[in-house]
Target: Glutamate-1-semialdehyde 2,1-aminomutase
Amino acid sequence: MSRNEVLFERAQKTIPGGVNSPVRAFRSVGGTPRFFQRASGPYVWDADDKQYIDYIGSWGPAVLGHAHPDVIKAVQDAAVNGLSFGAPTEAEIVMAETLCSMLPSLEQVRLVSSGTEATMSAIRLARGFTGRPTIVKFEGCYHGHADSLLVKAGSGLLTFGNPTSAGVPEDFAKHTRVLSYNNIEQLHELFKASGDQLACVIVEPVAGNMNLVKPTREFLQTLRELCTQYGTVLIFDEVMTGFRVGPQGVQGYFGITPDLTTLGKIIGGGMPVGAFGGRKDIMGHIAPLGPVYQAGTLSGNPVAVAAGLTTLCLLQQPGFYNTLETQTRKLVEAFNSAAQAHGETFSADSIGGMFGIYFSETVPATFAEVGQGNIARFNTFFHAMLNEGVYLAPSAYEAGFVSVTHTDAVIEATRQAADRAFESMKI
Ligand SMILES: *Cc1c(COP(=O)(O)O)cnc(C)c1O
Model:
């Protein structure tokens, strides 16, 4: 037995499914998850000391590459001064100032410890601000695991949502409406029928939790216009896309400003940090200023903030996003050329430092279209690549992530691995 297998067997005795977050368990691709022991730049090493080129980057945060020396040093320096105070610190002010200076929508921001906390709090705030009950989300978008967000579409457009998780009462789900991504007609229809009931619309402005699915400009623009018209709070969930697609998030990329933004992943630089922020008049409704309660023992944790701030500082260096975007495009071209050479039905796409690969003729625009791809073929490819030392997301419904340490040589090695993987799939 490999050490990965030994660890997985042992883990399952005391941890449900052997993992602390479900996708890590390899359930959708099958096989034994790899247990990692260390990481550096674009590489990770598993418990058997096998090296992989990593295209997950901790699901996004590792945009500088793993274990960047400046980030590690910042964490070490902060740790020496104490791990947590439960009182304000100057670093939190610098963090808030940095975030507000970078993202167009942020006038004020509050730090939390995860993306889930950020979206959950933003939704409570939107409801408290508007005094309305109903929230709108889109099929295939993930916003963390708060009750009202684990909801899928009902059978008709104007019906109530259905919980996608046991433990979520239908009474909660009925306040969530689920629409199809990129569908403008549905938006108009819903707002016309019940716009004055809608507290907020929450959207991944570029979706990365149903593989990579880009919005049309009209979709985001229509969202903005309808929310303004009906006094509904527009929330861009940029937990994944914030500082991943560009230095100003998707909002800067498309020039469309939401009322509230949620952040996570990159802003913690690999440590647990989330944030939500936006218009000052809305943020003024949070405790201690206003009646919407929100709090956190470890919010603004000094060690986590040190990692996040150092990361944000490094990615503001000139040319950073140029490099990130160029390397990601090269990767997409490498996948496409390898697939083409073997006559695979395949497509790929990218934006900033995130990418999608699809075993379908064309790049999908909705959750349903992602599901029409050849998922079984992806699963085979995933294992062939794993075997070749390339670690892709273990699900056809996840996006991939590139860092600035993914050099031309690393991408060429990936192309060669893909070439061998496709070759092995012919038999
Ligand atoms: C990862 C993610 C979340 C949840 O963040 P956690 O830190 O895992 O709680 C929320 N929204 C989006 C868009 C995400 O990608």
Summary: The mean pLDDT is 96. The pocket of pyridoxal-5'-phosphate is lined by residues 114-116, 119, 142-144, 204, 208-209, 237, 239-240, 264, 274 (CB under 6 Å). The chain has two domains: 3-63+319-424, 69-314.
